[in-house]
Amino acid sequence: MEVNNGDGVGHSNMSRKVIDEENSAVVIPETAHQISSDSWFQVGFVLTTGINSAYVLGYSGTIMVPLGWVPGVIGLIIATAISLYANSLVAKLHEFGGRRHIRYRDLAGFIYGRKAYSITWALQYVNLFMINTGYIILAGSALKAIYVLFSDDHVMKLPYFIAISGFVCALFGISIPHLSALRLWLGVSTVLSLIYIVVAFVLSVKDGIEAPARDYSIPGTTTGKIFTTIGASANLVFAFNTGMLPEIQATIKQPVVSNMMKALYFQFTAGVLPMYAVTFIGYWAYGASTSTYLLSSVSGPVWVKALANISAFLQTVIALHIFASPMYEYLDTKFGIKGSPLAIRNLSFRIGVRGGYLTINTLVAALLPFLGDFMSLTGAISTFPLTFILANHMYLKARHNKLTSLQKLWHWLNVCFFGLMSIAAAVSALRLIAVDSKTYSVFADI
């Protein structure tokens, strides 16, 4: 492979070019966004914001209910370990070949060539688009939960709240120019996460103590159980992985690899404990009847539940910005949006382009508000390939001459196993969507 121009640090105005095996150039532009400026601690909070987003309020219903106690607990622990391992592989390749690869597709293009660059970008776009769509559904569900607490007229439907959520997310996205600019908002996000996690935990404990014996059996027919189990495995990996690790790592200060490893260890130690707690206690308290949005299941003072739902809504707005940032970076870089965020051209561009992007997200969210289905399909068609299949194979190819035969076999086993899991999970998710489509109409109020 022949490489021309650039040091990969992101401070030059010249484009770098990676030449693949067919001598077809992949143009890799220098980013318009700020990079190499954040501490590992800040990046750790970026990762933790994702893992403890309001999605965590659905894991007791979308993971524990289909799997049951033993497989559910073991599955979460295994998913934690393999996710940390896979993410560490990608993190260690960030400076492969003597340059920084600040985008997932840049790394894939450098290792494989032009086709892999395009395929990786497509997979990542689908992954992040669906995650963002799910966030807007979550935000709308939180707003509806607040409305239901204070009104029983049912005039306002879920699609209305999804539209409101999309508008607020767009305002936030327009206001924050790039990922590093979140800074203070990451602290706000942490506080908001703790509010709804603590409320869900405490109220679930109260309900669990007072409730009669719960049913922990896995619901459904034998065939249905098989498909829901496979779908839940996709939800397991979805819970821990961003699909945009190089983009997050691009913001970190040198030394980028060791600092990123610190951030990952922070995410997978302190970060997972609140998620474990609220997931397990929710299932313990409500069993197979656990809602896919835990705050809908709990009983308690109205003002406490309102506070928790407001926190979930606001945290979702912040978390969505993280997963939308690669698309923002792509658009800003492509159209040369640099300089002051308040410059008329830059501000009007963000209003029009970011607002338009989130309008599409919001429309899809309102059309198909099936949260569990989004998690399953996203995990199947993009999180599995990006986080496990590609991570292992890229590492295998990049470090081929330095790996023992046993290590090579291990990575190939991972590639094959997760490839089969990806196919099975995609089939399961599509079946789930087909079943739900018979139950719910478009723009459903669920």
UniProtKB/TrEMBL annotation:
Membrane topology, record value: Multi-pass membrane protein
Any one GO molecular function term: symporter activity
Compartments in which it is found: Endomembrane system
Superkingdom, natural source: Eukaryota
GO cellular component, one term: endomembrane system
Species in which this protein is naturally found: Salix dunnii
Protein's job: Carrier protein involved in proton-driven auxin influx. Mediates the formation of auxin gradient from developing leaves (site of auxin biosynthesis) to tips by contributing to the loading of auxin in vascular tissues and facilitating acropetal (base to tip) auxin transport within inner tissues of the root apex, and basipetal (tip to base) auxin transport within outer tissues of the root apex. May be involved in lateral roots and nodules formation.
Transmembrane segments: 39-58, 65-86, 125-146, 158-176, 182-205, 263-286, 306-331, 351-368, 374-391, 412-434
Membership in a protein family: Belongs to the amino acid/polyamine transporter 2 family. Amino acid/auxin permease (AAAP) (TC 2.A.18.1) subfamily.
Record carries keyword Transport: yes
Keyword list, A-Z: Amino-acid transport, Auxin signaling pathway, Membrane, Symport, Transmembrane, Transmembrane helix, Transport
Domain Amino acid transporter transmembrane positions: 38-429
A matching Pfam family: Aa_trans
GO biological process: amino acid transport; auxin-activated signaling pathway
The organism's taxonomic lineage, starting at the top: Eukaryota, Viridiplantae, Streptophyta, Embryophyta, Tracheophyta
Protein name per its UniProtKB record: Amino acid transporter transmembrane domain-containing protein
